[in-house]
Amino acid sequence: MSACIAISYRLPHLPHLPRIPHCRPIEVKKTLAASIPHEARSKNSTRRGLLFLSLPMSALLFLHSNSAADPSSGFDPVTDAEKDASSALSRRIGEAVRLLDLAREFQAKGEFSRALDYFTQIINDYKDFAFTEYARVGRALLLYEIGDRQQAITEMEDVSISLKGYPEIHAALAAALYTDRHAPLLAENQFTIATILDPCYADLSYVREKKHWPPSLVRSLKNFITLS
Hints:
Number of strands: 0
Protein name: Tetratricopeptide repeat protein
CATH topology of the domain at 95-227: Serine Threonine Protein Phosphatase 5, Tetratricopeptide repeat
Helix content: 55-70%
Distance between the termini: 113 Å
CATH class of the domain at 95-227: Mainly Alpha
Strand content: under 5%
Radius of gyration: 41 Å
Structural class: mainly alpha
CATH architecture of the domain at 95-227: Alpha Horseshoe
Largest sheet: none
InterPro entries: TPR-like_helical_dom_sf
Number of helices: 11
CATH superfamily of the domain at 95-227: Tetratricopeptide repeat domain
Shape: elongated
C-alpha cells in the first residue's frame, strides 16, 4: 500500500493589475502605464540617468563617434599612393594590349619583321603580365619564318608547356617537329592535342587565312598532314 504525500506550494503574492477591457494597443499601453505608481516611474527614469552618467568617458566618445560617422561623408579607405599605383598599372596593361594588337595586325598584313619587333618588345617590357605568353606564341611563329628555326622550335617547346592546352602552339610545334626535327611520333602527339582542342587546325586555309601563319610554317604543316 503506497502512501502519497501531498505537498502544497504557495504562489508568491502577485500585485493586482486592473482589468483591461478590449481596446487598441495604444490604449493598453496607456492603461498599463497608469497602473504603475508615479514613484516607480520616477525611480526608473532616475536609474536610467544614473546608468548613462556612470558610463566611462571612452564609451561616451565611442557613442559620439559612431553617431557622427556618416556613410555619405565621402570617406575613402584607398590612399593616394594606391590610386596612383592602380592608374599606372592600368596604363601599362593598356599599352601592352595595344602593342599586341599592332603585332597581330602586322602579322596579318604579312609584315613579319615589324610584327616580330612588337612581339619581342612585349616580351621584354611586360614579362610580368600573364598574357605575354601569347606574344611568345607569335614570336615563335615569326622566328620560324624569318629567324632561326631551331630557336623557334625551342621557344615553341617552352611555350607549349606554359600554355599547355593552347591549340595553336601545339599545331605549330607538330609542323616544325615533323619537317625540321624529323620526329613524326612527337609531331603526331602534338597534333593530336591541337586537333582534339580545335579541329580547325587540320585545315590549311584556316591557319593561313584566319590565324595568319607565315608561309613556311603553313608548308611545314602541309608536309605533316600529307606525310610528304
